[in-house]
Amino acid sequence: MASPNGGDDFESSLLSFEKLDRASPDLWPEQLPGVSEFAASFKNPITNSPPKWMAELESEDIEMLKELGSLTTANLMEKIKGLQNLAYQLGLEESREMTRGKFLNILERPKK
Questions:
Q1: pTM for this structure?
Q2: Is residue 96 classed as helix, strand or coil in its secondary structure?
Q3: How many domains does one find in the chain?
Q4: Over the stretch 75-106, which tens digit does the pLDDT of each residue have?
Q5: Could you tell me if residue 72 is inside a domain?
Q6: Residue 7 carries which DSSP code?
Q7: What residues contact residue 68 under an 8 Å CB cut-off, 6+ apart?
Q8: Are 34 and 45 within 8 A, CB to CB?
Q9: DSSP letter for each residue of 11-78
């Protein structure tokens, strides 16, 4: 067992003061060719304008994106299930209305 005073000596013996030079391609070869150029392209954006898809959003849409982004995974899954149920209910309602329209003959084409 190590003595109480020896604990600091042991930890300091584990420290390394070696300086690693990452500039050498021989010591640190690029693992995936082209990755550094790809990463560098995102550091200096060409313009400060928002992306095209973001320019078409209204403030309500942005607020909804922020709201959905702040949800936990479980809450997001609940929201998605609710939307799926809503879409299913709308489909059933549309089917009933189409059937009703068929029986009322409002969807027939006028005869010439």
A1: 0.46
A2: helix
A3: 1
A4: 999 999 999 999 999 999 999 999 998 888 88
A5: yes
A6: H
A7: 76, 79
A8: no
A9: HHHH---PPP-TT-TTTS--SSTTHHHHHHHHHS-S--SPPHHHHT--HHHHHHHHHHHTS-HHHHHH
Picking from 89, 107, 90, the residue whose alpha carbon sits closest to that of residue 98 is 107
Q: What is the pLDDT of residue 80?
A: 95
Kindly state whether residue 48 falls inside one of the protein's structural domains. no
* Region for 106 from its dihedrals, namely left if φ exceeds 0, alpha if ψ lies in -120 to 50, beta otherwise: alpha
Host H or E run for residue 89 = helix 73-103
Domain of residue 94, residue span:
58-105
Residue 69 has a pLDDT of 92
End-to-end Cα spacing for the chain: 104
- Residue 69 token pair: 């982004």
How far is the CA of 81 from the CAs of 13, 41, 84, 85, 88, in angstroms? 57, 39, 5, 6, 10
pLDDT over 60 at 53, yes or no: yes
In a domain, 36, yes or no: no
